[in-house]
């Protein structure tokens, strides 16, 4: 899908603790960033990470411009939207990946209860299985910009601190903390707060790496749905309880129907 639209739909579902004394939005950007650095350290981020990440950061005017013109709803019908997303080339690649990662996907499905076809659909639709556009904007700069703007400052202050925690935990180095226009990152486009909350170290290397590790990506994607009430073994087509759970992935009914259609085309039993 248009990952930037998806990000803003996901924002409404984001749940990350906001600092008790939130930094004051607007005003001098450097003063704001310095305050955010103090808040991050109070939340457990090391001074070294704070200094490395926030030193010299500037406002990204392109992010602000995109945010202000962003629309929160799909303009296309489901049929028109799905026609451009559920296409033969994607289905062919997804089918091949189902075979290549059969054992991994079976393990994920057993542990989290989410059908492998749906996990594959999400992975494909978001970034073409990691081979598409995961975004190239520095996440810290993006989130600092959006946090400084007063429209949703508390939300993005929380996301900025979550992003710093990703680096602090050693999950990703700062150079790999790049993403799209709302700070979403990785092969299935997690916001930083979701990365912290739902990320799973499934390859056992001690880090949650949603940019490079396929096991981590697939398990974390399934875990997000499981934690939010996914009912294993139950249908997930339109009108089901699991279809409602999928709102925690994306609140757009059109996008969720597209996810279901893609999974169905891969042989998933959705109803």
UniProtKB/TrEMBL annotation:
The keyword Signal applies. Keywords: Signal. GO terms for molecular function: peptidoglycan lytic transglycosylase activity. The keyword Cytoplasm does not apply. InterPro entries: Lysozyme-like_dom_sf (IPR023346), MltB-like (IPR043426), MltB_2 (IPR011970), SLT_2 (IPR031304). It comes from the Bacteria. Residues 1-22 form the signal peptide. Residues 29-237 form the Transglycosylase SLT domain. GO terms for biological process: peptidoglycan catabolic process. PANTHER family: LYTIC MUREIN TRANSGLYCOSYLASE, MEMBRANE-BOUND LYTIC MUREIN TRANSGLYCOSYLASE B. This is Lytic murein transglycosylase. The lineage of its organism: Bacteria, Pseudomonadati, Pseudomonadota, Alphaproteobacteria, Hyphomicrobiales.
């Amino acid at each position: 899908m248009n990952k930037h639209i998806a990000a803003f739909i996901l924002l409404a579902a984001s749940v990350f603790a906001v600092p008790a004394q939130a930094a004051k939005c607007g005003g001098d950007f450097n003063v704001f960033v310095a305050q955010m650095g103090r808040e991050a350290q109070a939340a457990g981020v090391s001074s070294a990470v704070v200094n490395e990440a926030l030193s010299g950061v500037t406002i990204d005017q392109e992010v602000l411009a995109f945010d202000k013109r962003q629309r929160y709803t799909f303009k296309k019908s489901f049929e028109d939207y799905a026609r451009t997303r559920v296409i033969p080339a994607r289905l062919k690649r997804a089918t091949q990946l189902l075979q290549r990662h059969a054992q991994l996907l079976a393990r994920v499905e057993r542990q989290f209860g989410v059908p492998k076809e749906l996990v594959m659909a999400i992975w494909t639709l978001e970034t073409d299985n990691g081979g598409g556009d995961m975004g190239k904007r520095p996440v810290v700069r993006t989130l600092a910009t959006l946090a400084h703007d007063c429209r949703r400052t508390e939300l993005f202050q929380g996301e900025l601190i979550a992003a710093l925690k990703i680096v602090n935990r050693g999950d990703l180095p700062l150079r790999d903390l790049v993403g799209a226009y709302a700070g979403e990152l990785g092969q299935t486009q997690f916001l930083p707060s979701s990365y912290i909350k739902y990320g799973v170290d499934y390859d056992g290397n001690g880090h949650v790496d949603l940019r490079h590790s396929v096991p981590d990506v697939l398990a974390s994607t399934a875990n997000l749905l499981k934690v939010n009430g996914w009912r294993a073994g139950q249908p997930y087509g339109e009108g089901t309880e699991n279809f409602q759970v999928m709102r925690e992935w994306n609140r757009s009914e059109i996008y969720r129907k597209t996810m279901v259609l893609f999974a169905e085309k891969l042989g998933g039993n959705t109803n």
